[in-house]
Structures are given as structure tokens and as C-alpha cells.
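> call design_seq(struct)
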């Protein structure tokens, strides 16, 4: 997969891309990630990319011209156009199902905005879909783009090394995860549940399933209302 990110703060992406799974996935050619600075496509000598909103009001709005020029440059860097995604609090909520859907694509173009928002003609003219990572306001779309990127790349074949682990994760089945334990058997008076030491794999699977259902009921009952939740 190729992922392009258009941003006014390319340096923000440096560290997250340098570690762990995102680093390894790039080194192994599973994903290729390219960051492009929108400001490089500003037309004037002040490198201006935002302006005051028509109709008045607080804050500044991302101008269409630098973004269109930047986009058209980036589009040509690879053969396929792929999905074009604007990160904005106005977007559809980002969930695991969307991450799985995006992981099937050959190319994504992510656009991270700043200021009060994008000139509406950016969304319309680029035919972009809009994604939000939650119902709160961030200072810009960069962290949201990184969240999306992280969630999608770990689903790409080979990215985790262990194919089972993405399958078992919370949400891949619409439930929270069962509790996990590692050594020692007793820590500060707290014992590992006996069943996990029994070696009875069928019983352990059953117990884990029950735990996952109970915790979801207790902590995230909203997940059980969803259509992808298991019937149990
Ligand atoms: Cl994608 N952008 C901003 N600025 N705030 C957000 C968001 C995105 N998702 C949730 N809050």
C-alpha cells in the first residue's frame, strides 16, 4: 500500500513513523508512506495557505489553491488515485470496520487540515470522504491522520508478524478483549485465574469468551447494540 499525507506540519510525522510496526512495515516494503508539505504549494512570497472566512467569523480557513496544487502534484507521484480522505471533526467516525475497509486499498491520500477548517470547495473538488477520530476537537488533523495510519497499517498482511493477533484484538469481533495474565502466578496477593493454568484449551476458550462478553456488557454496553455484535 502507498499512503500519501498532505500536511502543514510534516515534521510531526517523523517520530511516529520511525518506531515499531510502522517502521518495520516500511522497511519491509509492506507500506510506503510519503509526506508532502502543503505550504510548498503556496503561490505568494509569504507562503500563505489560509485566509479569513467570507461572511465573517473567528479564525482562518484553508485556501483551496495551495491544496489543489499540492494534491495534483501528489496524485502524479503514483499510478493509482486511491481513496482521498480529509481528516475533520465533521467526518464519519473512524472505527475498526473502516480501518479494515481502508486496509484493502492500494493507495490512500490523507489530508490533514489546520485552522477553523477547509474551504468547502476542497471537499467537493477533490471528491474527498471525511473522517473524524472522535467527538472532540483537536488542533489539527495531523494526529488524526497518524491514528488512522497506525490502525490501517497494522492490518496489512505481514505487518504484525503474527497474523492471529490482529484477528483477536478488541473490536475485530465487536467485543472488548478478555483479561490477559503473564508470570508470576501470584503478584502482590493477586492470583492468575486457575482455569488459565489448567491446560484445558476448550475450557480456556469458553472462559475467555464469557469474560469478553461480560466486560463489554459492563464497560461498553453501546458496542452490544451494534449490528456487528455477536448474538450471545
Ligand atoms: Cl480528524 N480533526 C480535528 N481537528 N479534530 C478532530 C478530528 C480530526 N477527529 C476528532 N477531532
Amino acid at each position: 500500500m502507498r499512503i500519501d499525507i498532505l500536511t502543514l506540519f510534516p515534521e510531526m510525522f517523523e517520530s511516529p513513523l520511525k518506531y515499531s510496526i510502522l517502521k518495520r512495515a516500511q522497511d519491509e516494503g509492506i507500506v510506503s508512506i510519503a509526506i508532502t508539505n502543503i505550504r510548498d504549494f503556496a503561490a505568494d512570497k509569504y507562503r500563505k495557505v489560509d485566509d479569513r472566512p467570507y461572511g465573517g467569523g473567528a479564525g482562518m480557513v484553508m485556501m483551496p489553491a495551495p491544496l489543489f496544487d499540492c494534491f495534483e502534484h501528489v496524485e502524479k507521484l503514483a499510478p493509482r488515485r486511491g481513496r482521498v480522505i480529509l481528516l475533520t471533526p465533521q467526518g464519519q467516525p473512524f472505527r475498526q470496520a473502516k480501518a479494515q475497509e481502508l486496509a484493502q486499498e492500494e493507495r490512500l491520500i490523507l489530508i490533514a487540515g489546520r485552522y477553523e477548517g477547509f474551504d468547502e470547495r476542497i471537499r467537493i473538488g477533490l471528491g474527498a470522504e471525511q473522517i473524524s477520530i472522535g467527538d472532540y476537537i483537536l488542533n489539527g488533523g495531523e494526529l488524526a491522520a497518524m491514528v488512522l495510519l497506525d490502525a490501517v497499517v497494522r492490518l496489512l498482511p505481514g505487518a504484525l508478524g503474527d497474523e492471529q493477533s490482529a484477528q483477536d484484538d478488541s473490536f475485530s469481533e465487536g467485543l472488548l478483549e478478555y483479561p490477559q495474565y503473564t508470570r508470576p502466578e501470584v503478584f502482590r496477593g493477586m492470583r492468575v485465574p486457575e482455569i488459565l493454568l489448567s491446560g484445558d484449551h476448550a475450557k480456556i476458550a469458553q472462559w475467555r469468551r464469557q469474560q469478553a462478553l461480560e466486560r463489554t456488557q459492563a464497560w461498553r454496553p453501546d458496542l452490544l447494540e451494534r449490528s456487528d455484535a455477536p448474538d450471545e
